[in-house]
Amino acid sequence: MIRKMNKILIAIGSNHEAERRMNEVRVLLQDSFGDVVFSPSMQTKDINMEGPDYINMVAVFHTSLSYQQVNSLLKKLQSMCGNSEEARSRHEVAMDLDILAFNDRLYHLNDWQRPYIKQLVNTILTNSDNS
């Protein structure tokens, strides 16, 4: 039986040891999903202006896993990168991985309104459509 390949678009962000965490998560995502296309990274201010600047990027990949399986795996990868509720209470986000789109269904609709998300998504969808 051939399993359907789902197209996943995720947002990636870190404001604590961000450069190192971004390199770490690239490897973890590729190990988990195979061929992952990453956008360039972009530095942004904390939207609540309570913590340090973030480094953000988006990634797109295909998988036969369900939404729930992907979401669960992303939460595990966040923890592997050092994310914790305690650190988040200090406005330290080691890693944040959110599903923006699963096939044609959009998630985190408020994120889609952020200019940096629009820019990163536009960059990656243009690049991934050409590859």
How helical, in percent, are the residues? 40-55%
Q: What is the percentage of strand-forming residues?
A: 25-35%
Judged by helices, strands and strand pairing, the structural class is: alpha+beta
The end-to-end distance, rounded to whole angstroms, is: 27 Å
CA radius of gyration is 14 Å
DSSP strand tally:
6
What is the number of helical segments per DSSP (H or I, 4+ residues)? 5
How would you summarize what this structure contains?
The protein is α+β, with helices and mostly antiparallel strands and 131 residues long. Helix content is 42%, strand content 25%.
Note down, in words, how this protein is organized.
Strands 1, 2, 3, 4, 5 and 6 form a 6-stranded antiparallel beta sheet that branches. The mean pLDDT is 92. It is built from 5 helices and 6 strands; from the N terminus they run βαβββααββαα. By secondary structure, the chain is of the alpha+beta class. It has helices spanning 18-33, 67-80, 85-89, 109-112, 115-130; strands at residues 6-14, 37-38, 42-44, 54-63, 96-102, 105-106.
